[in-house]
Amino acid sequence: MSTKKNTGSNLQGVSRLITDATIGITDLVEAMHNRIVHPPFLPSTPIQNLITNIAGVTYKSIRWSTRLIGGGIDSALGLFASVSRKIKTTDEKEALSAVLNGVIGDYLEKTENPLEINMQFRHQGKAITLDTASLKKNHPTPNGKILLMIHGSCMNDIQWTRKEHNHGTALAKEFNKTPIYLHYNSGLHISTNGQSFNELLEKLVSHWPSPVEELVIIAHSMGGLVSRSALHYGQQQPNSWTKHLKKIIFLGTPHHGAPMEQAGNYVDVVLEAVPYAKPFARLGKIRSAGVTDLRYGNLLDEDWENSDRFKMNGDQRQNIPLPKHVECYAIAGVIGKAIKSKTRQLLGDNMVGVESALGQHRDPTKNLNFKKANIWIAYESNHMDLLSNPKVYNKIKTWMR
User: Fold this and answer.
1) How far is CA 61 from CA 48, 54, 58, 74, in A?
2) Cα dihedral 288, 294, 296, 301 sign
3) For a disulfide at 44, which of 48, 142, 196, 239, Cβ 3.0-4.6 Å?
């Protein structure tokens, strides 16, 4: 796809997003207006109904004109694409796209918005075509040892490079492995990405230019859940790539959920319970399926199907143990020094608590039971520091040996 086409498509995607957002806010204002005109628990008078009907005409007019103007902008930008000047993709644009997909990626997919990220393997920020000739072109001297780097929520493959360090690049050089980076829409359900990742891995292995000897996964945050989901679906089929997988190293993965999403869900429930604030509960519901899956660490379709993901239903996950034939390792971050504080343990790296990152659970059936030698706590490290902390890298190196 040409840069001009990408530019036009992105502009069209933004215009459609603005259109949909305007309509969404109109719905919110109308709901709030109705709540004020018709107080909870009281019967409505004819005058109140008349006010609502008149206001309803106005709101419908806003929606109609917004769709009309939005459609016009969308068409105009399509024509503009043919004459727009060439704009180079920057790391900042990629980062913005990753955040947008992380927050509303399921919506972008549902509406077929051009801003949606499609899952692909990438090398040096560029998509890899999964056929033998293209793979050999990207990797002129391939070996059978593949290092897979899986990013977290609201991130992309380029962001593995932090403070001039990239775990994948450094490990590949030191251990003679070929680094492959996954790029995906983190706003989709984790199980949806897991199934797509499973299919993509099978295709990668079947077209790799040399016999595959081993696969090693380094996964940050949500990437660890996507990897576990992919492995589960791969073993169910079964797919050949799962037989080559030797190690998974999890960096700050919320195996049992993230407290921030749990808190967000609690806010939803509170807003829903207050009559006049109920319309504002809609604002909390713009967050994606990928984000709400982080509440407890959903891995399978069954974990979220046939349920309202915004309701506080408790942990309904199916228990998926760690694979027996794969060596699994986990690193948890802690923002403070090595002090035994319950609060610091709960906050962990400011995104994921220590117990969740290490797969520990009060329910023995859900405890992942990592080997004691295979877990480690990185003190004075926040969630992002796990990508650049030299001590974290050294620990990974020890496990890679």
Assistant:
1) 20, 11, 5, 20
2) positive
3) 48
- End-to-end CA separation in angstroms for the chain: 41
Coil, helix or strand at residue 362 = coil
pLDDT of residue 73: 38
Nearest to residue 400, comparing CAs of 269, 224, 162, 218?
Answer: 218
Q: For position 62, what pLDDT does the model report?
A: 40
Q: Which of 83, 30, 11 is nearest to 279 (CA)?
A: 30
d(C-alpha 253, C-alpha 223), whole Å: 7
Q: Which residues contact 301 (CB under 8 A, 6 or more apart)?
A: 189, 191, 192
**Please, are residues 7 and 88 in contact by the beta-carbon 8 Å criterion?**
no
Tell me the pLDDT tens digit for each residue of 276-326. Answer: 556 555 556 667 899 999 999 999 999 999 888 888 788 989 999 999 999
174 or 42, which is more confident: 174
Q: What is the pTM assigned to this prediction?
A: 0.79
Residue type, 213: E
Q: How many CB atoms lie within 10 A of CB 156?
A: 25
| 167, 173, 176, 178 alpha-carbon torsion, rounded to 10° | 60
Q: Are strands 165-166 and 161-162 parallel, antiparallel or unpaired?
A: antiparallel
Rounded Cα gap, residues 28 and 25, in angstroms? 5
Which one, of 176, 167, 174, lies nearest residue 217 by Cα?
167
Q: In the prediction, which pLDDT does 58 show?
A: 46
CA 54, 60, 62, 64 torsion-angle sign: negative
Measured in degrees and rounded to the nearest 5, phi and psi for residue 219 equal -125, 130
Q: Quick one: DSSP state of residue 375? A: E
**How large is the average pLDDT for residues 219-231?**
98
Cα-trace Rg, the chain: 24
Q: How many CB atoms lie within 10 A of CB 81?
A: 18
Q: What is the pLDDT of residues 326-381, one digit of tens each?
A: 999 999 999 888 766 655 566 789 889 999 999 999 999 999 999 999 999 999 99
Other CB atoms within 10 A of residue 124 CB: 11
Structure-block tokens of residue 59: 């709101």
| Element of type H or E holding 345 | helix 342-347
Q: Is 163 left (phi over 0), alpha (psi -120 to 50) or beta?
A: left
Q: What residues form DSSP beta bridges with 333?
A: 378
Please indicate whether residue 241 or residue 103 has the higher confidence score (pLDDT).
241
